[in-house]
């Protein structure tokens, strides 16, 4: 048996960052920017007002107070999105809205609250004049051209992971598309004579192929494109046919057929068509795992053969397929978030494997607590649904007891992905 780390190192050793492509910005969430992005414009493009108020010259406000305002002549109004030809001079003001370009001659903006506009309005006085009720300094409430981004500057570094804020920044530059590392295409093939696809009648003795969907959802969650190949029966011909459909994939994931049962033919077909290593990994659930390269026509497709039990397939995906996908995406941090928690449920480790126990982590008095959720059989998929983390019991530990500090790999971290 090899350790989880050894297996992961072998898997990751095979994959590399994929090539880049131009993608519409809204499709780029979680992708990595493939080139340094420079701006060709200033943002903001012009000096503009940070407040609704009056554009003035600061010197026109000298000596102004609430009880003795300086009265300025209002020569116009300017809203966001418009320019005014009117100039502000000593003793004049232009009414201005947030985001509107600052008129020529003005060097500051007095917000409405520091004027007598409200009083004038309530007295039905025309706003041809305005009382300024405080002194302002030059530059007050003016956002300078280029203060966020100056034309020609480097805005986003190559390697940046795109989050909503980066999408916003790209949009502010006017970019419809961005150069990003493309998403890996992950083909998913379920194997087993017992499997029926969702939406169909379930004959006696059969089960729905839940793995197809949990694995495809994991692929999508971590930024890949899932390509569902459907179900292959447990015979050599059916598998060979299905494997051909994986020819364009960056990774083929199969579920089931890699354990020791009589009908576990995946390993036989793989041995025939590629270089496949079968491992027993020192982990629980998820001991049997296959990894190798499959010859499909002229291409070599890396293949990860996950165990069939629904919990095992999901947990082995998290440990091996997720980092492989992230590496192809150009992501640097391949680790899953872990936390320390106080153990609330004892677990015994009797066979020297690393246990990934399904737990629910909650915060109590500033400390995390991890409680086992339900039965831990590797066929009990609902326990995955109740869990938000995997409590890790090291292979060399006899177990964990209530009150121990344990490491929990979070499946969800504040429900973010
Ligand atoms: P195997 O690895 O073929 O021995 O399968 C182990 C267990 O996983 C068996 O109980 C299978 O019925 C179950 N299983 C295999 N494939 C799937 C699947 N796609 N969805 C749900 N359960 C599956
Ligand atoms: Mg089977």
Structural summary, described in words:
The protein has a 6-stranded mixed sheet with strand order 15-12-16-20-19-17, sandwiched between helices. Strands 7-4-6-5-8 form a 5-stranded mixed sheet, with no helix packed on it. It has 4 domains: 4-17 and 183-328, Molybdenum Cofactor Biosythetic Enzyme, Chain A (3-Layer(aba) Sandwich), CATH 3.40.980; 23-43 and 156-181, Alpha-Beta Complex (Molybdopterin biosynthesis moea protein, domain 2); 48-143, Molybdopterin biosynthesis moeA protein, domain 3 (Beta Complex), CATH 2.170.190.11; 338-410, Beta Barrel (Beta-clip). With 417 residues, it is α/β, with parallel strands linked by helices. It contains 8 helices and 27 strands. Helix 1 (4-14) packs across helix 7 (310-328). Magnesium ion binds at residues 192, 234, 256-257, 261, 263-264, 308.
CATH classification, class level of the largest domain: Alpha Beta
Give the domain tally. 4
User: Count the helices. How many?
Assistant: 8
Q: Tell me which ligands are bound.
A: adenosine monophosphate, magnesium ion
What proportion of the residues is helical, as a percent range? 10-25%
Q: Determine Rg (CA atoms, Å).
A: 32 Å
Structural class from helices and strands? alpha/beta
Oligomeric state of the chains present here = single chain
Mean pLDDT: 95
Strand element count: 27
Strand order of the largest sheet: 15-12-16-20-19-17
Summarize the structure.
This protein has 417 residues and is an alpha/beta fold.
């Amino acid at each position: 048996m090899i350790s989880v780390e050894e297996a992961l190192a072998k898997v990751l050793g095979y994959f590399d960052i994929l090539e880049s492509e131009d993608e519409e910005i809204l499709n780029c969430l979680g992708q990595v920017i493939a080139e340094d992005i420079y701006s060709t414009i200033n943002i903001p493009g012009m000096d503009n007002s940070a407040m609704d108020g009056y554009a003035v010259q600061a010197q026109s406000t000298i000596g102004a107070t609430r009880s003795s305002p300086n009265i300025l002549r209002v020569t116009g109004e300017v809203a966001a999105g418009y320019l005014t030809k009117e100039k502000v001079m000593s003793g004049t003001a232009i009414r201005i809205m947030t985001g509107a370009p600052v008129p020529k001659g003005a060097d500051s903006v007095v917000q409405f609250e520091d004027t007598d506009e409200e009083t004038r309005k309530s007295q039905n006085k025309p706003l041809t004049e305005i009382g300024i009720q405080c002194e302002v300094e030059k530059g007050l409430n003016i956002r300078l051209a280029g203060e966020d981004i100056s034309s020609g500057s480097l805005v986003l570094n190559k390697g940046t992971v795109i989050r909503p804020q980066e999408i916003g920044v790209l949009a502010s530059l006017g970019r419809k598309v961005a150069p990003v590392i493309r998403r890996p295409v992950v083909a998913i093939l379920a194997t087993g004579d017992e499997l029926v696809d969702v939406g169909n009648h379930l004959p006696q003795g059969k089960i729905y192929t839940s793995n197809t969907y949990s694995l495809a959802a994991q692929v999508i969650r971590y930024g890949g494109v899932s390509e569902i190949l459907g179900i292959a029966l447990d015979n050599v011909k059916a598998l060979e046919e299905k494997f051909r459909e994986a020819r364009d994939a960056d990774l083929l994931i199969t579920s089931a057929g890699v354990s020791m049962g009589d009908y576990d033919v995946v390993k036989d077909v793989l041995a025939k068509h590629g270089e496949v290593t079968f491992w027993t990994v020192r982990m629980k659930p998820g001991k049997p795992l296959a990894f190798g390269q499959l010859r499909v026509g002229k291409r070599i497709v890396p293949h990860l053969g996950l165990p069939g039990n629904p919990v095992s397939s999901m947990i082995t995906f998290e440990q091996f397929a997720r980092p492989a996908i992230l590496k192809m995406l150009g992501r640097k941090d391949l680790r899953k978030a872990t936390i320390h928690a106080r153990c609330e449920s004892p677990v015994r480790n009797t066979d020297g494997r690393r246990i990934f126990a399904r737990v629910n982590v909650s915060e109590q008095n500033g400390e995390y607590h991890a409680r086992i959720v339900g039965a831990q059989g590797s066929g009990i998929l609902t326990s995955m649904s109740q869990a938000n983390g995997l409590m890790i019991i090291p292979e060399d530990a006899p177990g964990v007891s209530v009150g121990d500090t344990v490491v929990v790999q979070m499946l969800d971290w504040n429900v973010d992905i």
